[in-house]
C-alpha cells in the first residue's frame, strides 16, 4: 500500500510530491526526517482560518448560554478566527509554554488546504478548490468565553501545529477520526462526522464574503472537553491515512 | 520618505512621492489618477499579521455605549481585506448600516518580541492610514467583531503612502478626520487613544512575535455615519496621508451560503 501527498520543501518553498510506503499516521519524526533529509516543515504558507462552535459537541456545550448575555442568540455565520504565522509549528517541533500558563488546551482537528482561490463558491463546487487535507493542533490557553476574539489565548508563538504533509482528500472524509494522546494515554477522539458544517459548506459560507486563497488552510472545528497538557508532556495527534504529529511541550526559559 | 505601490502600464511598481505626483522606481513621473494604487506594503512570504483595535478612543467607546476596556480589545484581519487608495468597497444590497473608521496604522519594521514601551517605536518602519469599514448588520456576539462585519474582501482600504517613521515626529499627536462627499463627519486626535502605540507594541509582543510588514490598526474616534453606494469617503491623518475610497453596490448574486 502506498500513500501519495505533498509537503513544502523548506529550502525552496515549493510544494513537492511524496509517496509513502506506510500509513503516515504511524510515521514519527525519525521516519519523516529520513525521508525528507531535513526537519519536517509546515506544509503551507497561506492564512490559517479556524472555525469555533462547528463541532456539534462544542456547540451543545455552549447552547444553554447562547440565548443569554453576552451572546443573546445563537451564531448564524461560521465563528471564525486566525492563527497567524508566528503560531505555526511543524509536526514534530517542540512548543514553548509560557511560565504564566499552567495548562494549554489541545485543539486537534483536520484542515483542508486550498489549491486555488475560492470566492463566492457554491458548496457543491467547493471540492474543486481543495488541494488536500492536513492535521492541525490548534493550541490555546483555556478560556470559557466566546465573546471576544481569543487573540491572547490562541496567538502565542508556536501554538498552531500543522502537518506533517498535505494528504489527498479521502472519498469519504466524514468517516475519519482524529485521536489525541497525552504521554501515550488516549485523551480524545474527534469524529469528523460530528460537525455542524462540512468543509464544503464552510467554504460556501466563508467565501461569500471573504476570499479563501490558494494555500490557505481551513480548520474544520474542535471537539468539546478538549484535553489539557502542560510543559513536559508529549502530545500526539493522529488520523489514519492522513498523518501524525508529536509535540513536546517545553517550559519557557525565563527571559 | 513617502512610499507607494502602484500598478501602471501593465506592471506593479514601487513609487515615491514627488510633489503632487509619483516617481516610479524606474524614474518615470506619473499622476495620482494615472495609476491603480495598491496597499503600500511589500509582499511577504507568509500571511501578514494584521491586528486591529476596537474601542481604543474613549469617545468612540462612549458612542457605542461601552466603557473603555481595561485591556486592549483586539481582533485580527487577513490580507484579503486590504485594498489601495482610490479603491472600491462593496456594500451589500440588504444592509442598513455600513460605516467607515479612520485609523492610524503602525507598520512594523523588524522582528519584535518582548519589547518594552521605551523601545517600542524603534520597531516601527512607518505609518499609513486605514479605513476599517464595518457592516454592523452582520454583528454577532461571538468573537465580536466577527469576520463577516470586519474581514470582508476589500473592506479595509489602506494607504496611499507608507510614511517613514522618521517623518512622523509624534505619532501620538496627529489630527484625524473623515469627509463623506466633502462633508466632515469625524474628527479626533491620536492623543486620545486609550492604549497608545508604545503600550500596544509592548502588550502584543509580550505574548506573540511581530515581524517586518505586520500591521497594527489603532482604532477610531467618534463620528460614524452610514455610507451608501456612490459616496466618496476620505479618511485623513495629519502628516500621514489622505486616503480616498468609493462605496459601490455589491452586485446581486445567487446566495451561495
Please list the strands of the largest sheet of chain A in the order they lie side by side.
Answer: 4-3-13-8-9-10-5
Shape of chain A: globular
Largest inter-chain contact set: A-B, 49 and 37 residues
Helix and strand composition category of chain B: mainly beta
Give the quaternary arrangement of the chains. Answer: heterodimer
Look at the helices and sheets of chain A and give the structural class.
Answer: mainly beta
Strand content of chain A: 25-35%
State the end-to-end distance of chain A.
Answer: 48 Å
Radius of gyration over C-alpha positions of chain A, nearest whole angstrom = 17 Å
Summarize the biggest pleated sheet of chain A.
7 strands, mixed
Taking all residues together, what is the mean pLDDT of chain A? Answer: 94
Beta strand count of chain A: 16
Gap from first CA to last CA of chain B: 45 Å
Cα shape of chain B:
globular
Order of helices and strands of chain B: EEEEEEHEEEEEHEEHEEEHEEE
What does it look like?
The complex is a heterodimer of chains A (about 260) and B (about 260). Chain A has helices spanning about 30-35, 55-60, 150-155, 200-205; strands spanning about 5-10, 15-20, 50, 80, 90, 95, 105, 110-115, 130-140, 160, 175-180, 185-190, 215-220, 230, 235-240, 245-250. By secondary structure, chain A is mainly beta. The longest helix of chain A is centred in the last third of the chain and has 9 residues, at about 200-205. The model of chain A has no long low-confidence stretch (mean pLDDT about 95). In chain B, the strands form 3 sheets. In chain B, strands 1, 2, 3, 4, 5, 6, 7, 8, 11, 12, 14 and 17 form a 12-stranded mixed β-sheet that branches. A 5-stranded mixed β-sheet of chain B has the order 9-19-18-15-16, with no helix packed on it. In chain B, strands 10-13 form a two-stranded antiparallel sheet. The interface of A and B includes residues 47 and 152 of A.
